[in-house]
Amino acid sequence: MLQEYFSALIQVCAGFGFAGMIIVLSIVFGRRAKLRSATNIPYECGNVPEGDGSPAFFSIKFYMVAILFLVFDLEVIFLYPWALGFQDVVLNNGAAFGSMTVFIAVLLIAYLYAVAKGVITWHRNPSPRR
Prior knowledge:
Layout: H1 6-29, H2 60-84, H3 86-90, H4 94-117
Helix pairs in contact: 2-4
């Protein structure tokens, strides 16, 4: 019974072993940095950083578009296998077609709601022409 899980156990052990080996090698062969040296500060090219280091504020539109992208990307993930088996499964099974129709309808309602709220409408400030 446990023989079925033996290959998975080997893969898990190999993964942990590889991760542990990389950590040990980085400790053994890694260069020790001077904590106060200005040349070892990341992303500043040797210059002493100025300011508080927090990024600029982004508009909520960026986050809303990212969430919408995830929602509709997941829709494609669920829709793709359904479309591949359309001829074999869906045409012979009315419940499969109905469930996917409801799924697409819910996503269509979500999309129309997002459009109505103006989530994907970008307003640009007109730049002066030269």
